[in-house]
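Hi U.,

Before I forget, here's the chain from the pilot set. I'm dumping it here mostly so it's searchable later in email.
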Amino acid sequence: MIVLKTLRNHSLYHKSPFFQQRRWKKPVDSAQTRLEGRTRDSKLDKLADNLRTLETILGVHRLMSTRKRGPFVSVQLMSRWRNILGLNINMGKFLHKYPHVFHVFTHPLKRNICCRLTPKFERLLNLEESITRECELDCVCRIKKLLLMSKNGTLHVHALRLVRRELGLPEDFRDSILGKYTSDFRLVDLEVVELVSRDESLGGVAAVETWREREYREKWLSEFETKFAFPINFPTGFKIERGFREKLKNWQRLPYIKPYERKKENVVRVRTCGGGERYEKRAVAIIHELLSLMVEKMVEVERLAHFRKDLGMEVNVRELLLKHPGIFYISTKGITQTVFLREVYSKGCLIEPNPIYSVRREMLELILLGRRNTRQLQQRDEIKGQGSNLVGNEDNGGTRGGDWVTPIFESFEDGNLDDNFGAVCDLYEEEFDSCSPNTSTENKTCIQG
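Structure:
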């Protein structure tokens, strides 16, 4: 009996699928796992989410500006732009969320719902464009510095076009800057720009050198500690592992070829002892200087990768950024990934703002108002809502019922109905505002639009 039980148990052990040997697998350490397990910065994540909303609204403005029939578009037509803008909600609900940006009204003739930008937001857009035109010399200086950092003194115009708004360049920078300043730039091909003469005095000092000099003077640190160091600012909650401080200290002292140095004897040999680390540190310095040239000190990671070959940093950009969480921060809010320069931000705002950033910040604050502080907007809607009971008092110098229709038909004598939408709405609003809301009830007349 004992022999039969042992044989039975032995056969069950081998045939049962539940007794399988499992091997221990080493956890995967990749750029994706490091991106998911990084320490989050709530302030920069919130800023990236808000900037995503601003980009969507600017996309709506660009689509509205392509319409030539007037400064407004029907909401029915705007609903077709949902997939183009990447919206996950209805277009009507999106417009209703931002009354300080979009003004939704009923067309006086066709009686359909239309939308246009508010005067406040239009004023900020015009102000940003005028400041960009005034800072033309600063744009020239930024492009020169980018060309000085490149390997052969050339850059692809396509890469500049991708970061046009981040660099603060005008929309027609290819003609207004590259074509205008022929003494500085030369178009080799249709999509390649070259620096005419390398002025080393212009880009000889990187932005991090100012910090190093301040650390050397104010904190009395030695030159050995600050000559090749970078400002480190870890996010709240960052866990420092054992041996990390020593590695960081050695990395800060590691010498490297600075971004604007272009000498044959300074070529980095990757296969030598420490050559790979110096090559990566040079790539960190190039990205640091590139972000310092941006208006908001941030850019999308995918657009940053278009400068790899031109600037001579043949590395995995996202993996390199994740290796240095004290210098860069990658936010995954929205569809794309955005990298921020940590040292220039404090509580989600730039420490040293510039004019273009200040205007964009005002746009962002107007968006963040949402449905708040809409008392003036409500008063405007109430006044315009009385249009059906509007009075034309003849004794008080007002207009009689039906007098406002005559100039509208006169404006369409030589033109098409759709081509005069702007004139109709302006005329309608002038008549609307000129009427007194405190008129007697005996002379009230309904205006049928």
